[in-house]
UniProtKB/TrEMBL annotation:
It is found in: Cell inner membrane; Cell membrane. Belongs to the MreD family. It holds the Pfam family MreD. The gene is mreD. This is Rod shape-determining protein MreD. Involved in formation of the rod shape of the cell. May also contribute to regulation of formation of penicillin-binding proteins. Keywords: Cell inner membrane, Cell membrane, Cell shape, Membrane, Transmembrane, Transmembrane helix. PANTHER family: ROD SHAPE-DETERMINING PROTEIN MRED. It comes from the Bacteria. One of its GO terms (cellular component) is plasma membrane. The keyword Membrane applies. NCBIfam families: shape_MreD. It is a multi-pass membrane protein. One of its GO terms (biological process) is regulation of cell shape.
Length: 162
């Protein structure tokens, strides 16, 4: 009998791929439509393995996104910790929801984190108060959620990540 791999490398690789997708250049007209890949992967792993991926992971992942984006350190870390808190509070219910219901909750959670980031940027004068176009990212994230959920679930089951 060989010992079972704990599968941490699958989680780390999925986050690395999400980081890469988060920094892929988009044309200027499509920047508001960029899905929040890292937040989506974080939500998935918190639903699937809440005892392994928690609020500490969310903070570290958010700090890494801050470094990648060159934004104020702790900004995305705070937003991802908010997502982690909300997800951990309802992860049992999220598992039983349909893809459409999960997408609606993803829309709300990602939207709240985007609003928080926008308010802090405006409050610290790093951004100008603009319209609500930045929330289109939450809409595209909710649209992508069902497919990402299926892909990550197959990956988790295929590699027996527990």
């Amino acid at each position: 009998m060989t010992p079972k791999a704990n599968g941490i490398w699958v989680i780390v690789l999925s986050f690395l791929l999400a980081f890469l997708l988060a920094i892929v250049p988009f044309p200027d007209w499509a920047m508001h439509y960029r899905p929040q890949w890292v937040a989506l992967v974080l939500i998935y792993w918190m639903i699937a393995l809440p005892y392994r991926v928690g609020m500490g992971t969310a903070w570290v992942v958010g700090a890494f996104v801050d470094i990648l984006e060159g934004s104020m350190l702790g900004l995305n870390a705070l937003a991802y910790t908010l997502i982690a808190y909300l997800t951990l509070n309802i992860h049992h219910r999220l598992r039983m929801f349909s893809y459409l219901q999960q997408s609606a909750l993803v829309l709300v959670m990602v939207g709240l984190s985007l609003i928080l980031v926008h308010w802090i940027k405006v409050g610290t004068e790093q951004s100008d108060p603009v319209g609500m176009l930045y929330l289109l990212s939450a809409v595209s994230s909710a649209f992508i959620w069902p497919w990402l959920f299926v892909v990550l679930r197959q990956l988790r089951r295929g590699f027996d990540v527990q």
